Amino acid sequence: MNSQHLSTSKSHGLLSASIITIGDEILIGQIVDTNSAYISKVLNNLGIRVEEMLSISDDKDHIINTLNRVTKPGRVVVVTGGLGPTNDDITKKVLGAFTGARSWVTNEAQLNIIKGITARRNMAMGTLNRAQADVPDTCEVLVNQKGTAPGMWFDYRDCILISLPGVPFEMQYLMEQVSQKLQQRFRLTPIYHRSLMTFGLPESTLAEMIADWEQALPSYMKLAYLPNPVTGVKLRLSIYDYLIENDKNNSPLASAVDEQITKLRAIIGSALYGEEPDTLHSVAGRLLLKKGATVGTAESCTGGKIASLITSCAGSSAYFKGSIVAYDNSLKTAILGVPTETITSNGAVSRQVVEAMAEGARRVLQTDYAVATSGIAGPGGGTPDKPVGTVWMATAGPEGVYSELLSTTGDRERIIERSAANALNMLRLQLQSSSTNFKLHM
Do residues 119 and 223 both lie within one domain? Predict the structure, then answer.
């Protein structure tokens, strides 16, 4: 990479942001706050770094105290919620008082939208509906074509204060206007993120393996570890506050990260399986398409979870043929052809049975590959020799049949999810391998 293409932005500094959601319904767990995540992604894509997300109650003093703390020069503050027509929706009134409004003005464009919405719903135009078009004289209106509550943009003491409805699709619509206005107002440099997906290496082990690589990263590139107990560790590489000279496609940034990914892959090999939004099942699907191959599943303890993940990918009908959920041993024998004596001698949760299940699924479903699982998901059913969390997995294909034992912990749902993820990883590794000797990361 030619370093002269990348230079620190000194002209404006990186804008920071606070996101505030207002509503008791969030605090009592009645609804989940998805607005903050959406707003954060939009702001990050613009080049504005979100420093905090807050959820606060519908209380005047609490709102004002929070605003006093976060409305700093050079800060963008986005508030959602509390803009409805009822008495408990106090955000607009509080923001008017906070910004020193002297009067309230009816926004005719928003009023016409409200009239249209009430007419389409065969509703009378009430006083509360009409009042939603009234805004403080300290704001610039963000007209809401999708609902009755307008957004509001305040220039307040060198801070940008934005108020949006809490209804997600209305908020998302208005964020398009907010995005355009922020781009017009500031010289923004996009924050560049790349998230690398790994599987099979615990966070501590991964950190030790890549310590020298991490230490040698360029000073402008930051690394974050984002572990997930089911799907593995995500490594996010970020570049903040850099200008791109003579290039509008981020190619210098992409090249800088590509160079580091190449070095990382040489260290951890097949444990690095893709980049967000890649998943184990989407990567396996692409490999099957590339090979022109098909797959099916034979599942006991995972109860169809693997098949569900595979078919969650659009276009999976091109490579997925079907699943046999052989939960009862009689079905393992009758449908998959697992010999009764194999189950009797070794138990249903065993290498011999799961390998026979994979071979049986491949034969019955007439697929190139098959994935099988048999285990103890709990909370009961465990023994000293085979405790809860004991799961055998197998893959069968032209290269042969491979099996691995997974010994995991957690509740029933977690064990099922981990088993499905590890089985899909086995499939991925077998599909990637050009020989019969491949290493499974468990």
Answer: no
Contacts by 32-35 with C-beta closer than 8 Å and gap 24+? 34/168, 35/80, 35/81, 35/164, 35/166, 35/168, 35/171
Residues 164, 29, single domain; the answer is yes
Is residue 260 within 8 A of residue 269, CB to CB? The reply is no
Secondary structure class of 442 (helix, strand, coil): coil
Range 385-397 average pLDDT: 97
- The one-letter amino acid code at 328 reads D
Give the pLDDT band (50/70/90) at residue 207.
Answer: very high
Q: What is the mean pLDDT of residues 85-103?
A: 92
Locate 207 and state its tokens: 């950190």
Together in a domain, 173 and 212: no
One-letter-per-residue 3-state SS of 30-94: CCCCCHHHHHHHHHHHHCCEEEEEEEECCCHHHHHHHHHHHCCCCEEEEEECCCCCCCCCCHHHH
Residue 91 falls within a domain, yes or no?
yes
Same domain, 160 and 235: no
Structural domain includes residue 4: no
Domain containing residue 166: 13-185
Amino acid 3: pLDDT: 34
Q: Which long-range contacts (CB under 8 A, 24 or more apart) does 8-12 make?
A: 8/220, 8/241, 8/242, 8/243, 9/189, 9/241, 9/242, 9/243, 11/187, 12/186, 12/187, 12/188
Distances (CA, A) of 249 to 122, 186, 196, 243, 275: 49, 19, 20, 12, 19
Residue 277, preceding peptide bond in cis (omega within 30° of 0): yes
Q: Are residues 313 and 428 in the same domain?
A: yes
Rounded mean pLDDT, 6-27: 73
Judge contact between 323 and 307, C-beta under 8 A. Answer: yes
Q: Residue written as tokens 């009797």?
A: 344
Last residue of a domain, one of 219, 241, 275: 275
pLDDT-derived band at 13 (thresholds 50, 70, 90) equals low
Residue 343's domain is classified under what CATH number? Answer: 3.90.950.20
